[in-house]
Amino acid sequence: MGKDRVSYFYHPTTPLHYYGPSHPMKPHRLKLAHHLILAYKLYTKMECYRCHPASAAEMAQFHSDEYVQFLSKITPDNLRTYSGVLQKFNAGDTTDCPVFDGLYDFVQLYTGASLDGAIQLNQQQADICINWSGGLHHAKKSEASGFCYINDIVLAILELLKVHARVLYVDIDVHHGDGVEEAFYTTDRVMTLSLHKYGDFFPGTGHIQDVGAKDGVGYSVNAPLQAGITDDTYLNDLFIPVFDKIMEVFQPGAIVLQCGADSLTGDRLGCFNLTTRGHASAVKHVKGYGVPTLVLGGGGYTIRNVARCWAYETSVLLEEPIENNIPFNDYYEYYAPDFELHLKPDPSMANANDNLTSIRTELLQQLQDLQGAPSVQMQQVPPAFRTTAADDNDDMDEDEGAKGLSRKRMKKPHSAELYDEVD
Ligand code: V1D
Ligand code: CA
């Protein structure tokens, strides 16, 4: 079998956004990762695209109109006039989700890139699509949460469900993927798997017995972990056996993989002890099944390590080995003092996970109890829901889409632009 066709989505202005001086989320990490990917010459091995900015109508496929309108209007200058709704939408200086300059542009770009990836997978233009700016798993229908405003993951999964009967979501961020789990909690068409730190840790959800509701019972899978987990135990005691069982019983047509890099050793907010090789082994294992996969970013707060991790995972997805010495690039000094790609585990960190066997056994039993891969009658595939800001006005046709929902379709759909600049 040949190598996978990989598409990479990036926009040069996404990393320029700034949450504020004391905020741990630094979109600048995306620029570091991109420059490492360029310096390793990985761009020559994949199709590179400049993503489209998602429109309000695209975001409203999951989010409430009122919330999307709020995000489109709010600025640091008019904050005071919105004081009533700020609390309602969990945004502003007293929350984890500040209103910063260009916030709406930022959410449009990271969301557009995930939608572009999902559309390319649906159209079989690529086997793997990468958007390191996406993966903002905490955003809710009408609420920002945990540094996330728009849930690009939910929107991308909804796009994939137009073509695929079943979509698997896998979340290796150190935090629970609560927004995605909640969105699909009552359906058997999306299975969610999150591994995360549980107990006195944000967002507080993701108990092992949170398994889904109604038609979705058994289709939410949660692995609650403790601090200090290492590559060997994470992969061999949990990730690989649970993931393999999911593939056997659920047989997804597409996978969305959230690669939050805050599960790495030495993360500013995280508390796991995974190395770049361990984190990437999970990615490699998912890729090994050859199912169309959308690969996304997520958390990650020691930004030099986020760049190391996502550059290395890009090479793993391309099956292009890269050397451990960091090549010279605009951000070379960030990688001092060792200037090496790979992280070593912290030997002084205790692994507080002494019950992985019981967690694994319980999750395998949950999966064994499922009745087998559910099927759906697929009707005609609805068109990719793509608009631009200008198209939000009146340049559209009314169209009847999946589940009888009224949808607007662009008269002239267009795709992400091939990217030919360095920055
Ligand atoms: F340390 C901080 C400094 C400034 C602002 C926020 C934080 C901070 C650290 N950890 N905020 C958190 C978490 N929030 C709380 C709040 C206390 N309660 C009222 C809530 O503990 C939020 C952590 C968000 C993690 C986001 C993510 O890594 O999962 C992510 N994934 O995709 C994008 C981000
Ligand atoms: Ca997780």
UniProtKB/TrEMBL annotation:
The places in or outside the cell where this protein is found are:
Nucleus
Per UniProt, a divalent metal cation binds at D173, H175, D262
Q: Which GO terms describe its cellular component?
A: nucleus
**UniProt keyword list:** Chromatin regulator, Hydrolase, Metal-binding, Nucleus, Repressor, Transcription, Transcription regulation
- Positions with biased composition (Acidic residues): 391-400
Q: Which residues bind substrate?
A: D96, G146, Y301
Histone deacetylase domain residues? 23-316
Q: Does the keyword Nucleus apply?
A: yes
Q: Which InterPro entries does this UniProt record tie to the protein?
A: HDAC_I/II, HDACs, His_deacetylse_dom, His_deacetylse_dom_sf, Ureohydrolase_dom_sf
UniProt region (Disordered), positions on chain: 386-423
Entry annotated with the keyword Cell membrane: no
* Pfam families, alphabetized: Hist_deacetyl (PF00850)
Major place of residence: nucleus
> GO:BP terms for this protein?
epigenetic regulation of gene expression
Q: Where is the active site?
A: H138
Catalytic reaction equation(s): N(6)-acetyl-L-lysyl-[histone] + H2O = L-lysyl-[histone] + acetate
What are this entry's molecular-function GO terms? histone deacetylase activity, hydrolytic mechanism; metal ion binding
- Would you identify the family this protein belongs to, as annotated? Belongs to the histone deacetylase family. HD Type 1 subfamily.
Q: What is this protein called?
A: Histone deacetylase
Write down the species: Fragilariopsis cylindrus CCMP1102
